[in-house]
Design brief:
2 copies of one chain form a homodimer.
Chain A: E1 8-11, H1 16-27, E2 32-36, H2 39-52, E3 60-64, H3 65-69, E4 73-76, H4 80-89, H5 91-94, E5 98-101, E6 106-109, E7 112-115, H6 123-130, E8 135-138, H7 145-149, E9 157-163, H8 166-177, E10 182-186, H9 193-210, E11 215-219
Parallel strand pairs in A: 1-2, 1-4, 2-3, 4-5, 5-8, 9-10
Antiparallel strand pairs in A: 6-7, 8-9
Chain lengths: 224, 224
């Protein structure tokens, strides 16, 4: 499929990551549907984004999760514990579609984030198992919500993308490629989502340790 | 401890990673003992290094693993399946010492490397459990053996270091800091070794996909 012009639904889109991604995707020309268990909360999240970024007003609507799951491409943006469940609940609507998993399974222990290993290795693998008829792609794990949402700034980061369906990986990479400053990198099969998700804990640790905002940029790659 | 001038033993130091690290550590002024189950194989590995890099001749000796475990600081450089076992076999000699775990648990599936999750989450955690009286530090996972061993070239990479003993992390970081071009980054507790080890699969995948040699360099960090 051609990802340009695709509508994008965001399940659990009211949190920081979902809202940030909604604003960002709307800013590059997608129609974005923010979904939530509660349409009212989705509407509040939408209003908050539009208040800050009036230019995306026409590209952003609010709905319940089922309504968001009707979009062409769907992002699961809930906290990681709920990702597979919300995908399963909307499994029929998601069948055949590209579904993007962006959650990281982390736990905060004292001042440090530690990676957790979900039983299937990754949140993305868990989501894929919940919706076997969908094409799950893992992406957007390392971008802080604030950076995603500041649509007047380029993102300035590599974005690792992996999945078992090559066409789906290419389509998601096309979307990422149109976000100013971000570069999609093909990180292979969905089995690598485990490593990408867990690595978020390392990046967060480095942010705390060095009081900075680490951008993973992998040198040596010429994607021309 | 002051890591400068410490002798360093390398358990299972005859493979590419161990030999590369041995040459590199000898080149920055450490006395390095290459260990192996077979002293003869260790001697062969030592001779091969010295043939290529005669300047490190005086800083490199060969011994069995027990002899290497007598050094001040010890690296476990076996393939990941054997790392905890060789540490346990030399547990008494390693008690109280800094032990560096550098192995990655990976499996090759077709043309792609995939991360495996050892039962304790990481090779490093497995090694630490095998030698509870030692201070295990995880480091050197993302550096290819060839790059480690080409001691006439700077390494040009960040090196993520983690461990539960802060002084041990600092000492290992001091060693890394003296390797030209490499920068140690404090990645937190040993629990993060899981993420660092698994991420090696992503880096290898990117190397294959983009026919390059990816160096993980994390921008935004000023360690000045």
């Amino acid at each position: 499929m051609n990802a340009t012009g695709a509508t994008i639904g965001i399940l659990g889109g009211t949190g920081p990551a979902g809202s940030g991604l909604a604003a960002r995707l709307a800013s590059i020309g997608h129609h974005v549907v923010i979904g939530s268990r509660s349409t009212e909360r989705a509407a509040d999240a939408r209003d908050a984004i539009v208040e800050e970024w009036p230019t995306v007003s026409g590209s952003l609507t609010a709905n319940d999760n089922a309504g968001a799951a009707d979009a062409d491409i769907v992002v699961v943006a809930t906290p990681w514990e709920g990702a597979a469940q919300v995908a399963r609940e909307n499994g029929e609507r998601l069948a055949g579609k590209i579904v993007i998993s962006m959650a990281n399974a982390l736990v905060r222990v004292n001042k440090e984030f530690q990676p957790l290993v979900p039983p299937r290795g990754s949140v993305a693998a868990h989501v894929q198992a919940a919706i076997p008829a969908s094409r799950v792609v893992a992406a957007f794990h390392h971008l802080p919500a604030t950076e995603l949402g500041r649509i007047d700034h380029p993102i300035d980061s590599d974005v690792l993308v992996c999945g078992d369906d090559h066409d789906a990986v290419v389509a998601v990479s096309e979307i990422i490629d149109r976000i100013p400053g971000s570069r999609p990198l093909d990180a292979g099969q969905l089995s690598n989502a485990m490593a990408i998700e867990a690595f978020t804990a390392v990046l967060l640790q480095l942010n705390v340790r060095y009081a900075t905002r680490v951008a993973p940029k992998l040198t040596g790659i010429d994607t021309g």
